[in-house]
Design goal:
The structure is a homodimer of 162-residue chains. Chain A has 162 residues and is mainly alpha-helical. In chain A, 57% of the residues lie in helices and 5% in strands. The first copy, chain A, has one domain (13-150): dinb family like domain (Four Helix Bundle (Hemerythrin (Met), subunit A), Up-down Bundle), CATH 1.20.120.450. Chain A has five helices and two strands, in the order ααααββα.
Chain lengths: 162, 162
């Protein structure tokens, strides 16, 4: 994939944002579905608990958009969001939801296709980096579904994102 | 989301296809990583074994594109692909890879944004239905990662899709 537009595109920025925020709403419901203790401690096969996976999502989304908008590069910081309870995580999640909307409106159309060396590590067109963030969230949230099922908890429906 | 283009778009059809096929390559590697027996039998929390999840992906991708291209509607058929071994599943996966490329080239640009009542059930713009298929694959493949970890098997890297 490169940054030159050679054909007409099929998804608008506002549609992409709507899909992403729909997924983020579903991820929020998955966080809510975990009991407090299991959110921070339950794991399968040596994987990270779901709170750690959510922390990774928070470490990518707003800092990534911030760099795309401002051009100011900071190293990736997994632990940038401090929380020790489910409610604190949900509050951080909601704050990120608002910040994503604010930063998104500041991305000029041409910027989506410009190469951004995100966190000094991921040198791709901005839209590729953003798509990676979304796919990574869906990937890890799917893992949260297995954790919930293993705990005997019915996860929210995958299509329920509105 | 609606089918009217009101702003310039950010992803081209060929880029979308490249991302999807990259994910499908990774899903193929996840299928390969399962031992034969566990692919068809291993499960956590009452969920479907990974072969069943892969069967769902196969039931959506090519039949969905076929309906988008031809306009011919058939009901969703989970069991359309018959396989009883890992190799047969991989062969079906590779056949679908080729068919997706062939059908994709036959989707006129305007068609991506037209509403398609996929399988007579999912009445959305074609690109929304296709995005759902991709997100659904990433979601279920993430679950396969947990199965592999629970089996003590290292999954392929999430970013290794080329």
């Amino acid at each position: 994939m490169n940054a030159t537009v050679t054909e007409k595109e099929i998804i608008t920025p506002s549609e992409f944002l709507q899909n992403w925020q729909g997924h983020r709403l579903l991820t929020r419901r998955v966080i809510e579905a975990f009991p407090e203790k299991e959110l921070f401690e339950f794991s399968i096969g040596g994987m990270r608990p779901f709170a750690e996976l959510a922390k990774e999502m928070l470490a990518i989304a707003v800092p990534g958009l911030k760099e795309i908008v401002t051009g100011l590069q900071e190293p990736y910081e997994e632990n940038r969001t401090a929380f020790t309870t489910k409610q604190e995580l949900l509050d951080a999640w909601d704050e990120a939801t608002e910040q994503i909307n604010v930063y998104w409106q500041q991305i000029p159309l041409h910027r989506f296709r410009e190469t951004v060396n995100l966190f000094g590590q991921y040198n791709f067109p901005a839209i590729v980096n953003i798509t990676y963030a979304l796919d990574n969230e869906v990937h890890h949230r799917g893992q949260g579904y297995v954790y919930l099922r293993a705990l005997g908890i019915e996860p929210p429906a995958f299509y329920d994102r509105w």
